Amino acid sequence: MTARKRTIVHVMRHGEVHNPEGLLYGRLPDYHLSERGQAQARAVADWLALRDIVYVVASPLERAQETAAPIAAGRGLPVDVDEALIESHNVFQGQRVSPGDGALRDPRNWWHLRNPRSPSWGEHYTEIAVRMRGALERARIKGEGHEAVCVSHQLPVETLRRAMNSEPLHHFPTRRMCNLASVTSFYFDGSDYVGWGYAELAGR
């Protein structure tokens, strides 16, 4: 009988972004890691240095690619791109959405807030879950018997964790277990999902 291969896929949120305007940058181009974000990426790369990483893949957005770069460079790997790891779509992209100012004060935008369970302001949680589970499975296959790293974004990572553990996909943003440069690890025995772990390795 062939032994089942144990595989770990680490799904990481990118580091801090340089965003002095405080915009919801979403999928906009040219948003790069801040100095602190670069330090966070290096800290996680150092933590992963002794792990059996054989595959690194990231969202196409610059902040994810820059976060993945030191992890891949430490073991002479390229950073692959998987479009499914991209940030979720949001109708408020490019606007300020902090409480008390910006787009949320405009009554014309309140229609977008009508159903937080979907959510009505952007990509549905179920759609995020489907594409993120696909990316996870592709990474598992690429890293079979070893470990792989995927770099993505907060809402997609949180949605993936919930989907893998049969938790409700809708949630309050303040309750997400996915801080900057955090790592959510998914454990597989063969193709069977057997558990997960979470680590914050670079501070908040």
Topology:
Blueprint: E1 6-13, H1 35-48, E2 53-58, H2 62-73, E3 80-81, H3 125-142, E4 147-152, H4 154-164, E5 182-189, E6 192-200
Parallel strand pairs: 1-4, 2-3, 2-4
Antiparallel strand pairs: 1-5, 5-6
Question: What can be said about this structure in brief?
Answer:
With 204 residues, the chain is of the alpha/beta class.
What does this structure look like?
The relative contact order is 0.23. It is built from four helices and six strands. The protein has a six-stranded mixed beta sheet. It is an alpha/beta fold. The longest helix has 18 residues, at about 125-140. It has one domain: Phosphoglycerate mutase-like (Rossmann fold), CATH 3.40.50. Helix 1 (about 35-50) packs parallel to helix 2 and helix 3 crosses helix 4 (about 155-165).
Helix and strand element order: EHEHEHEHEE
Helix content: 25-40%
Largest sheet: 6 strands, mixed
Number of helices: 4
The low-pLDDT segments are: none
Class from secondary-structure proportions: alpha/beta
What are its keywords?
27% helix, 19% strand, Rossmann fold, alpha/beta, 204 residues, six-stranded mixed sheet
